[in-house]
Amino acid sequence: MEKSEENKSLIYKIDEKPPFGKAVIYGIQHIFAMILGSITTAIIIGTTVGLNSSQIGLLIGYINIAVGIATIIQVTLGIKLPTIQGSTSGHIPAYLALGSLGVSLYADPLVTMQYLCGALLIGAIFQTSIGVFNIIKRVAKYISPITVGIIIMMIGLGLWQVITDFIDGAWIYAIGLIALVIFFSFAFGKTTRTMSLFLAVLVGYVVAIIGTLLDWFPEKHAMFVNIQNILDAEWVTMPEIFPWGPPKFNLGFILAMAIPYLTASLESFGDYMALSKVIKTKAPGVKRISRGIAAEGIGSIISSILGTSATSTFSQNIGVIRLSGVASKFVCIVAGVLLLLIGVLGKFGSVMAEIPQVILGAAYLIAFGLLTMTGLELVLRAKIDNSRNQIIIGTALLLGLSLPYYMNENPLKIDNPAISVFINVILSTPMLVSGIWAFALDNILPGDDEIRGLKDWIPSEKET
User: What is the pLDDT of residue 5?
Assistant: First the structure.
């Protein structure tokens, strides 16, 4: 009975191909869940280093092209699971810290971008090496479901402030969109369930456009759509190699950027394990996990060459799969192609970029909420009623929420800029703080494999 119910939860399995029209809708739904990350990252980088609005618009386009390429590489050659690549949130503290430092060191924003791209490039090569040399094989036995699950949970919980900033007090609209998603998920069966997020965002966007045209939503209103920006956008924007200029290298920047790449690798490890559980397939073995991490590094190398942010498996899209029941790899490939088109077709990209932030913030809340539950499921592989595990889990979650909040308000001031940035990036990243704490305690405090949830945790090396 239980197994039957689990099978019903997936409408399209990993190797099944929905009709092309539906695949496009499902792909757009994935894009809705991750496009905010691309827009947010571009805005954070651009405003921090001093790029103008036109340059930020180009950055958004370049990011979409990069993540589209990275998604196709990952699904076809890397982990070969239904994943979407996006601008990982784990790098945001580094962008803020390094961008601000760059502004103080270099007068020209483009020079700061060159140093950022140089650090991103070296960091991406470092991440690729983690995969190529199968480092996961050497450390896998120390990384339990407790550590991985807490990292996944903190990806969702740790971005509460980003969600709050994007909704920005307009909670009545956000709650309305959440209600729409729930309505489409349960009111009409599997047909609307598979595209509930898409339908809810579409309805919200149409209401926003109509309200703007009828002057219901004036400029600066949460639901205002700048239609003129869409009309003024270029139809085609072709990517360039190192569009901000040749990369430059600063050791402090490189060291600080290496930390988010290491975190992204651990995050992806957890994403692969969580995703395999959601789509009811065998968990990937260490060789395949390493191949996925190497593919992510290659995606980030391409991203840095295109002058954009790092890419990684976008965790919230696991929540989209859980919500829709669509686990098809083909859909993710379609999403990758659509991202390429959005990046190249400036007009299309402008339409996506003008979706009101309150709508995307609500979509993020849903996706990250479901992702948090996926992380909790991994944590529950361990014995949750054991006092050892309760101490680890409870302290890791609260420390990951409280310490970064404090550090963002009170950064450490150290004379050496490189060391200062390095330490502040670590202490201001929720999933890194929680992950390090959980990892340390889980390997220090005594506990057998059953207590730690390591039994049947990672398949043997024979799995390819």
Answer: 42
- pLDDT computed for residue 210 by the predictor: 94
Q: Rounded CA gap, 244 and 304, in Å?
A: 11
Q: Which residue, 207, 212, 228, 249, is CA-closest to 362? A: 207
Cα separation, 453 vs 447, in Å, equals 10
Q: Would you call 69 exposed, middle or buried from its count of C-beta atoms within 10 A (0-12, 13-18, 19+)?
A: buried
At residue 205, the pLDDT reads 92
CA distance 434 to 38: 25
pLDDT attached to residue 184:
86
C-alpha–C-alpha distance, residues 347 and 341, integer Å? 10
Give pLDDT, residue 1. Answer: 38
Read off the tokens for 93.
Answer: 């503290």
As a whole number of angstroms, the distance between CA 318 and CA 438 comes to 23
3-state secondary structure the chain: CHHHHHHHCCCECCCCCCCHHHHHHHHHHHHHHHHHHHHHHHHHHHHHHCCCHHHHHHHHHHHHHHHHHHHHHHHHCCCCCCCCEEECHHHHHHHHHHHHHHHHHCCCHHHHHHHHHHHHHHHHHHHHHHHHCCHHHHHHHHCCHHHHHHHHHHHHHCCHHHHHHHHCCCHHHHHHHHHHHHHHHHCCCHHHHCCHHHHHHHHHHHHHHHHHHCCCCCCCCCCCCCHHHHHHCCCCCCCCCCCCCCCCCCHHHHHHHHHHHHHHHHHHHHHHHHHHHHCCCCCCCHHHHHHHHHHHHHHHHHHHHCCCCCEEECCHHHHHHHHHCECCHHHHHHHHHHHHHHHHCHHHHHHHHCCCHHHHHHHHHHHHHHHHHHHHHHHCCCCCCCHHHHHHHHHHHHHHHHHHHHHHHCCCCCCCHHHHHHHHHHHCCHHHHHHHHHHHHHHHCCCCHHHHCCCCCCCCCCCC
Residue 7's pLDDT is 45
How many angstroms separate the Cα of 84 from the Cα of each of 183, 217, 414? 25, 33, 38
Residue with tokens 């989209």: 320
HSE, CB side, 13 Å, CA atoms: give it for residue 435.
30
Q: What is the pLDDT of residue 190?
A: 66
Q: Which amino acid is present at 424?
A: N
Mean pLDDT by 10 residues, the chain (464 residues): 50 92 90 75 81 80 92 95 84 76 82 92 95 86 87 80 81 92 80 76 91 91 87 82 92 83 83 86 88 95 93 82 89 94 80 81 82 84 92 94 88 78 80 90 92 77 53
Return the structure tokens found at 84: 């979407």
Note the pLDDT of residue 59.
Answer: 86
